[in-house]
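To whoever is on call:

I kicked off a structure prediction for a single chain this morning and the downstream step that reads the tokens threw a length-mismatch warning. I double-checked the sequence; it's 654 residues and nothing unusual in it as far as I can see. Pasting both halves so you can look.
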Amino acid sequence: MGCDMDMKPLISELASDEAVWAMSPFWLDSLPLGIAFFDCHRHIKWVNRSYADVLGVAADELAGTSPVDVAGISIDHYPCPVADAMDSNSPVHTEMTVAHQPEGHNRYSFNVYPVQKATGEILGATAVLERITERKYVERALHKSETRLKESQRLARIGSWELDLEHDQLYWSDEIYNIFGIDPDRFEATYEAFLEVVHPDDRQLVHDAYSSSVRKNTPYEVSHRLLTADGSIRYVQEKGETFLDIRGKPLRSIGTVWDITERKLQEEENLVLQKKYHQAQRMETVGRLAGGVAHDFNNMLSVILGRTDLILEQVHLDAETYHSLKEVQHAAERSAELIQQLLAFARRQPMKPVYLNLNEVIAKMLKMLNRLIGEHIDLAWLPVDTPGTVKMDPSQLEQIMANLCVNARDAITGVGHITIETRNVSFDRAYCAMNPGFVPGDYVMLAVSDDGCGMDAEIQQQIFEPFFTTKPKGEGTGLGLATVFGIVKQNDGFINVYSEPGQGTTFKIYLTRHFKGAEALPEKNRRQLPKGNGEVVLLVEDEAMVLAVNQITLEKLNYQVLPANSPSEAIAHVTNAGDTRIRLLMTDVVMPEMNGAELSKIIEGMLPGIPTLYTSAYTANVVTHHGVLKEGVEFLQKPIPRDILANKISELLR
């Protein structure tokens, strides 16, 4: 094939010689190439044997014909390549198909060269016919192979490259340009140009990996980032190796680039989910622990607080005894608060959510918050003009505000500022997609900011974990912010923290906004406890010590008490009550024989219209399981402060 290709320029040169043109060059019959001479009228003057054989016509029959006159051939160039070559005085290259040959359709290249005298007059033209069927097959196969490779690279997001080290010439496949987001026409195609696309923080890593590979003649693999023209970041994984010449000099490097952006982002997302999962596991563990001890612990605290209250009412106590009892009372109250914080963090705290105007509730808390943070800190209150309504337990909102303000106070050394603000906000899906952690919807934002010491990123990742604290040993439980987190999650909200070392901290809580009016809250902390007028209370409690202290507390509040240590005993009291009018059922939720809800149903059947006050030392999950925490149900979590109990019973007996 190489020999045949070399003959074509020679034939063209011979054909331009007038002496050769004047005679019949029969020696050309021995050539495998088809040769034809055309006169100035564009008709065949002479053909060699190979040309005639290709067309399947005798040489003398072809004399006087044009190249398109023979049946069974199809020339791609239309209407006549010979005429075009002679008219333009320049070579014409085309292809033709011959259909009548025994082995089937064959493709030939048909190259026409104009022939002219020394004076420039056109004598005619020379045509060279060469079989290219096999080459066409190879070209088509190569094209298919290249197409498949391109499609495979596109689907796999893998590109290939080659670097000519001698000339610093870089070759990239189409897919690498797609991955790098580069226009091929604007790329310099050098190693240095490639490094410019690598993320600045990763360039040295990539250069060191490649240089070491070339120097040691070992394969290399490296993952790094790209900084694309639009400012976005992509992640790729490169593999490559270098080939040497016979003298051991590096000649060329080849390799692949794999776009692993989606995988990398998925890994990062999985890492976040894994952290959340581990945090949820820790929360569940703490929740189980808190739930496991809450019942017995709260019952014991009920006894301690109840008995302490009763003793403190005695007027004959000396100062030292009174002070000691107040310390016991304070310790018990603090213990009850810790249990509530644990339950709040684990989202097991019983809730009685109501519709709240956030501004009104916080405004009533400002005096308490000012006392909590101290006079050396300025507290600013910046409420939105028309706040949305949120639905949550008011006591939980108090817990949130107290914990956040205490946390802010402890972050401030000396004088400082704490700012509380509210705002109505809405987030759509597009915004949330660009801001991880946000959830689409309408919210009321509650923000607490301070100008204290601030936090670095490492501390921020741990602040909501149970028992994590930066305070000295003995000065913090590590449950304050964990409690806030638990309450917010329990109310289907979310919380974000913004902080820099030395620049203060802002906590932003987002609570679902309800388009409904706020409910009026009962007044708290009355100066004098409301007492009864001798009304009869059926008191049901399976813990003997709790039953005893609750009985004494109710009697001190001027109620008559029918104590029952079990549901069956309570039913017996009602059966044997006779003329005694029982006004209220106060019952534990979880008891032997039956639960409080089942007992209430039976008692209501015997005493229609009687109100029920449920109490329990168990967590919200257990109480809910027993069918108590529903809309309109009256429930108090043990231990129950005496003032709350007095107010609740007075409210129910009105």
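Update from on-call: the warning came from a stale cache, not from the record. Cleared it. Sanity check on the structure: The chain is about 40% helix and 25% strand.
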